[in-house]
Inverse folding.
């Protein structure tokens, strides 16, 4: 629909947006900027940048509402709830705070034809639903993650409040004009919740074309293998597995491990690394988005994991696509769509989640067989170049919007 003369007035409500680090912020920005470049009128309602430390970045106004123009996109920002995210309850309160003010911002910000409400924030669907009804706009719900299911302990029934939340979100999904999913496993879950299959569309994760620049070989990589993780250091990632892998290889000078990023588990993991003598692992901390590629260029192997929680069975980490743009082999610990992606693309090795022994074996295999590692890197780069470019994904999104008669 690149040449379609009919332009849409679209409001995207998403809790994360640039200049925040993280895949969610980059994904929303890529979609919004591509649509704006094609002449669509795009507004994003988001919070002031504060991820992952939940402290507002320096240089941003501390007002409840602020507005800016970023790459042709009107960005309305809301001040986050001023308290640290110390547990699930406080996190839920913070997301509810954003949802209330986001709904108001959409209502008062002017005419819109489509409201695109995007998870993983659990309460954004409610904000989008309410605002779309008041503005007489079409609601499109984008499901990136079934976040509420992380509140359920494995092997136990969902608490009543979580079951109620899921029923409410399912009702919003059924009432929306279109439900977008990042993969077929999520689509099946939405169908199981009562959303008609014909109202669902799979729109895969997006990568910025500017990232599709081949990185050269790692300096000195013939002597040392650097295994790197880049992203949020949280419970879902369970990066203690990588610490244990580093401990296993700590006597071998050919291997080093690097964690780039921040999050609630960083200090705890640093304590574990010190206690077990894993001196071959470095914690870099959060880095500006513009510096991330430089760190990728220093890696020989890129690592990602989602723990074995059942909620991760439908998750497709956007991080994997970003890794593929770097022309590096991947070791991925996980099940579901993420594992399927790595296997189908041939981009690396899939191991069982939460299994450091398998991580060690995979790292050794890629380090010792450089030809195989290079082939994995090449296959991953070719896959992401063919299936996840901005233009390809946004064409798919616009086709989904056209099916709602909104475009």
């Amino acid at each position: 629909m690149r040449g379609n003369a009919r332009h849409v007035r679209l409001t995207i409500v998403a809790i994360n947006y640039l200049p925040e680090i993280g895949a969610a912020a980059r994904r929303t920005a890529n979609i919004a900027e591509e649509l704006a470049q094609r002449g669509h009128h795009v507004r994003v309602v988001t919070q002031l940048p504060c991820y992952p430390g939940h402290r507002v970045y320096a240089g941003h106004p501390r007002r409840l509402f602020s507005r800016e123009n970023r790459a042709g996109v009107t960005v309305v920002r809301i001040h986050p709830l001023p308290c640290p995210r110390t547990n699930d309850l406080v996190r839920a309160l913070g997301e509810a705070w954003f949802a209330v003010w986001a709904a108001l911002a959409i209502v008062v910000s002017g005419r819109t034809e489509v409201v695109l409400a995007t998870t993983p924030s659990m309460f954004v669907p409610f904000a989008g639903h309410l605002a779309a009804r008041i503005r007489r706009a079409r609601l499109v719900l984008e499901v990136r993650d079934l976040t509420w299911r992380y509140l359920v302990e494995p092997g136990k029934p969902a608490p009543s409040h979580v079951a109620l939340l899921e029923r409410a979100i399912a009702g919003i999904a059924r009432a929306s004009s279109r439900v977008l999913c990042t993969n077929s496993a999520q689509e099946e879950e939405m169908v199981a919740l009562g959303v008609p299959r014909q109202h669902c569309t799979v729109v895969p994760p997006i990568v910025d074309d500017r990232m599709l620049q081949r990185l050269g070989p790692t300096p000195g990589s013939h002597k040392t293998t650097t295994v790197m993780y880049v992203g949020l250091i949280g419970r879902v990632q369970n990066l203690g597995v990588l610490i244990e892998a580093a401990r296993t290889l700590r006597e071998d000078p050919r291997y080093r491990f690097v964690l780039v990023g921040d999050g609630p588990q960083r200090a705890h993991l640093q304590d574990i690394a010190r206690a077990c003598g894993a001196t071959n692992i470095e914690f870099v901390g959060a880095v500006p988005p513009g510096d991330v590629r430089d760190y990728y260029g220093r890696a020989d192997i890129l690592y990602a994991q989602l723990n074995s929680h059942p909620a991760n069975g439908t998750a497709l980490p956007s991080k994997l696509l970003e890794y593929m743009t770097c022309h590096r082999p991947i070791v991925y610990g996980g099940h579901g769509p993420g594992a399927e992606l790595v296997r189908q693309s041939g981009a690396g090795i899939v191991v069982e989640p939460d299994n450091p022994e398998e991580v060690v074996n995979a790292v050794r295999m890629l380090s010792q067989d450089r030809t195989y590692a290079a082939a994995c890197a090449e296959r991953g780069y070719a896959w992401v170049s063919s299936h996840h470019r901005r233009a390809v994904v946004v064409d798919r999104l616009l086709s989904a919007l056209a099916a709602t008669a909104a475009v």
